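Onboarding guide, step 5: your first structure request.
Type a short instruction followed by the sequence, for example:

Predict the 3D structure of this protein.
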Amino acid sequence: MSKAIVVFSGGQDSTTCLFWALKHYDEVEAVTFYYKQRHSDEVRVAENIAKDIGVKHKVIDVSVINDLTQNALTDGDINIDIDNETGLPNTFVPGRNVLFLTLASIVAYQTKADTIVTGVCETDYSGYPDCRNEFVGALNGAINLGLDKHIDIQTPLMWLDKAETWAMAHELGQLEYVVKNTLTCYNGVIGQGCGECPACKLRRKGLADFARKKIKQTKSNGIYQTILKGEL
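The system replies with structure tokens like these:
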């Protein structure tokens, strides 16, 4: 029997990955990391979604990371911008995915899961170095050596842009659910978000691109025109 642990934030990407995992694995559990993130409702949203779809869910406090780093994702007093020194968005949390995937591997080991699913993406990854395929592969190898056990890290969104991620949610029959119930916004607004932060702009552009493509392909407006009007 196959079993997967999904690294789950309650956002668009990880929720799509959760539905993807439910389709591909016999048993699925979700793990959410609390690190005093800027959108403090993230954990509550993840808990609500997991409960709503009946997935076993664990929240792990890793807020110690804030004693080691300073960034706009955990400090609401810092304006979201580009770090002049590194050239990266100042929402980058150094070591976050190193920590998350390492801890998820411990959960996988203890629960006899053979797979970890994460929504990292190299196409729309904002320049974060710990979202690259090369990083995931290297860490996966190190984890397997350190645990002396084969655990596969799956990244179903790795080569998809946001429009293609919305298409995946649609194919899974969960487009409307993901639109309405997930939290991607840096300012903590569920669903379509504040519309102003970088995460919201990327999400909305991807959704609009997806809708326009579907209208062209199907020659039918339906729900896609509703999306373009911002009414979904």
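Each response can be followed by summary notes, for example: The chain has eight helices and five strands.
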